Amino acid sequence: MGDFADFTDEAIGELSKLGKTALDQITGKSPASDLSSKIKQQTNQQTQSLWNEIAKFAQSATAQFSGDKPVTSSEIAKMAKKDDKFSQASQEEIRQKILQIYREYEKKKKHKEMMEQQTEKQQEQQQVAELHERQKAKEIVVPAVGKARAEIGKNYGSE
After folding, report:
1. I need a surface site. Which of 73, 89, 127, 147 has the fewest CB within 10 A?
2. CB within 8 Å of 24: residues ≥ 6 apart
3. Radius of gyration over alpha carbons of the chain, in Å?
4. Residue 126: phi, psi to the nearest 5?
5. CA dihedral 56, 77, 82, 90 (to 10 degrees)
6. Residue 72 vs residues 22, 65, 78: alpha-carbon distances, Å
7. How confident is the model at residue 107 (pLDDT cuts 50, 70, 90)?
8. pTM as predicted
9. 3-state SS class at 21
10. What is the spatial distance between Cα 4 and Cα 71, in angstroms, rounded to a whole number?
11. What is the dihedral of CA 134, 136, 140, 146, to 10 degrees?
C-alpha cells in the first residue's frame, strides 16, 4: 500500500511538472531547447525511480528465497555500532599482545646482558688468577739461582 502511495505521489509530481512545462510553452516563457532539457531531466528521474523500485523488488525477492527479512538502515546502523565495539576490543587485544611481546623481548635482553656481565666477570677473575699465579711463580726463587745471582753481582766489576 505504501508503494502505491509513493507511485501516486511521483505521478502527480510528474504531471504537475509537465503542466508547468506546457504552460511555459504556451505563454512563451521558455524556449524549445529548454523544453528538451526538461524532458531529459524527467526521463532521468523516472529511470532512477524505476531502478530504485527494481532494486527494492530484488531485495524482497531474495529475502523471500533465503527466508530473511530485508535489512533496514537502522539495522545497518546497529551492525556498524557492534562492529565498532568489536574492532575497539580487538584493537585493545592486539595492543596487549604487542606490549607482551615487547616485555618478553626486554626480559630476554636483560637476561642476555646479565649473562654477558657474568661471563666478563668470570674472564676477569680468570685473568686475575693467572696473573697472581705468575707473580707467585716469580716470587719463588730457587736457592741456587739466588746464590749465583749474588756471586755474579760481587764479581761483576772485579775483572
Report:
1. 73
2. 30, 34, 35
3. 50
4. -65, -40
5. 100
6. 40, 18, 10
7. very high
8. 0.35
9. helix
10. 21
11. 60
